[in-house]
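Same chain as my last thread, 146 residues:
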Amino acid sequence: MYIVSACLLGDNCNYWGGNYNNDKVKDFLKDKQYISVCPEVMAGFSTPREVTEILNGRVITKLGEDVTEGYIRGAQLMWQAAMEKSAECGEEIEGAVLKTKSPSCAAGKNYDGTFSGKIIDGYGFSAEFLKKKGIRLMTEEDFQDD
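reply #2:
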């Protein structure tokens, strides 16, 4: 079973109210059990919502509001939903396919927190949560053609 960022499956849940529909991710999932999640929506953030980035371990909106607690709650709610789905379908969580460069889902590369577009090594709050649980992380970039 896989945990998958809902925006990659076409759900309009990202910060600007759109999605990052990815047919290659959908093809990968065709014969697999999975749960579609958006930790930010699960935590109660609206769609659309203010853009956020991680700076010094905190999630900050472009207007300077600290919304870290919501991102922590989103990671916990995502994990709870994934564990329930895993129990329901009788399959272990094999991995996660997450949206790159997201303050929730980034797995390896993320924005630097300055809202300048600069990319650094880093993880979003939900990706870091899953990583600590030993879940194999992938992003949509793992499904690109070479």
